[in-house]
Design a protein that fits this description.
The protein is α+β, with helices and mostly antiparallel strands. The protein has a domain of about 150 residues: OmpA-like domain (60s Ribosomal Protein L30, Chain: A), CATH 3.30.1330.60. It has seven helices and five strands. It has a five-stranded mixed β-sheet with strand order 1-2-5-3-4. Helix 4 runs antiparallel to helix 5. The longest helix is centred in the first third of the chain and has 27 residues. The radius of gyration is 33 Å and the shape is elongated. The termini are far apart.
Length: about 220
């Protein structure tokens, strides 16, 4: 009889079983919130679009302005065949006009040649019309220099950059407040200094029409 009662009595349940169901519910809610957050990130519009039409128009205007400057600079370069290595290139910081030493400076000297002065005169209207700052950088190859005027490549590269800056300000009326100059010696080469052609390309003055801040 006692054995029959044990068989008919209901099974005992654990008092902590509700914790399992509670944990399952929390897990499900967490999964729902994660899915909603991921969907928000995926469909969130870019900052320019969130800012309204003005942000998008500013982006398109900047791109159009950059293309116009590029075309103007290419036109200037096409007029100066004597400086065959004169070039324009795009970098993250802006448009770079690269003027080689050959034809622009005498070796070991900082004075602009007549052809380099003509280049600066033709570039000046483009520089005056551009809205941003312009940085002038002097560069050399890795061959040490020591003459009566310059004791190092640092001095030569800085003197050349300063010469270009002064010409643009004093002769062509480019606002001095928009210009800066720096000399880097041999430490920012365009190519490894392993061949005469590479060294010639590294001896240059760059004019950077900045679209991003540089250090």
């Amino acid at each position: 009889m006692s054995s029959a009662r044990r068989a008919l009595s209901p099974p005992r349940t654990s008092r902590d079983r509700w914790l399992v169901a509670y944990a399952d519910m929390l897990t499900l809610l967490f999964a729902v919130f994660v899915s909603l957050y991921a969907a928000r990130i995926e469909f969130l519009p870019p900052p320019a679009a969130r800012a309204g039409g003005d942000g998008l128009l500013s982006t398109f205007a900047a791109a159009s302005s950059d293309d116009a400057l590029w075309n103007d600079l290419q036109h200037v370069i096409s007029q100066h065949g004597r400086l065959r290595e004169l070039e324009v290139r795009r970098e993250a910081r802006g448009l770079v006009i690269s003027m080689p030493e050959a034809g622009a400076f005498r070796p070991g000297r900082a004075e602009l040649s007549p052809e380099a002065q003509r280049v600066m005169r033709d570039l000046a209207p483009v520089l005056r019309a551009s809205p941003g700052p312009v940085r002038v950088e002097g560069h050399t190859d890795d061959v040490p220099i020591h003459n009566a005027t310059f004791g190092s490549n640092w001095e030569l590269s800085t003197a050349r950059a300063t010469e270009v800056l002064q010409f643009l300000v004093e002769q062509e009326g480019v606002p001095a407040s928009r210009l800066s100059a720096a000399g880097y010696g041999e430490f920012h080469p365009l190519a490894p200094n392993t061949t005469p052609a590479a060294r010639a390309r590294n001896r240059r003055v760059d004019l950077i029409m900045l679209t991003r801040a540089v250090r």
